[in-house]
What does this fold into?
Amino acid sequence: MNQSSLIPNNTFRTRDGECGFSIVEMICAMTILLTVFGLTAQLISFCWNVQNRESTRIAARSEVYRALNMIEREATTSGYDLKSNGIVAPDSDAQSIRFRANLNAYDLNVPSGVQTVSEAGEDVKYKLVGTDLVRLDVNLNQTSVLASEVTTLQFRYFGGRVTIRADGCQPTIDTGTSAEVTPDQATFFVVTVCRQLPAVGAPGSDGYQPPDVYAISHGVVLRNSVLSSY
It folds into this structure.
C-alpha cells in the first residue's frame, strides 16, 4: 500500500478549511505594529514636552506680570505728600528699589499725629533674594515672594520718558533726550525681569526643550515726581 495515501489532504488546514498565517507573515505584522506604536510614543513624548514648556512659559509670564503690576501700582503713589519722588536713594540701585508715600495724609479718620510714613504699604522695597523676587514691607517687616526662578532684576532711572525698543535681559532703550539719573532725581524708570525656564525632557529625546529665559521690560512713570502738579 502507498504510505502517502494514508495522509489526509487537510492536514495543514484549519477546521474551516482555511490556511493560517505563516511565521514570516506574523513577524511582518508584529514589526509593523511595533513600528506604529513606537512612532505614536515619540509623537506623544514630543507633544508632552512642548506642552510642558508652554505651560511653564505661561506660568512664568503670569508671575512676572503680577510682580510688574504691583511695582507699577506702588510707584504711582510713591512720593505722595512727600517733597520728593518717594524713592529712597540710599536704599535703591540697579538691583532694588524702595518707595515711600504718606498714603493717609488727608484721611480725616486718622488721628492727628498718626499721618506719617509708618503704616502698612507706605514703605516698601523690591529686590532679589536668591532667585526670588520679593516685596518687603519695611514698616511691617513682612516679605512676600512675587516670582521665583528669577535670574535678573534690573532698574534704570531716567529724567524723562524713554522708549524700550527690544526686550531682553539687557533691553535696548532709546533714551532720546532723557539721560540716566540717580534714583532720587528720576521721573521715569525701566524695570527688567528675567525668569529662568528649566529644560523639559532629556537631551536627545523627542521634543526636548532646552533651558530658556523669559524676559520683559516695563517703563513706569513716577507721577508724584513733578511736585508742581499738586
The chain has one helix and nine strands. The longest strand covers residues 188-197. The radius of gyration is 34 Å. The beta strands are 97-100, 123-129, 132-137, 142-147, 150-158, 163-166, 172-174, 188-197, 212-221.
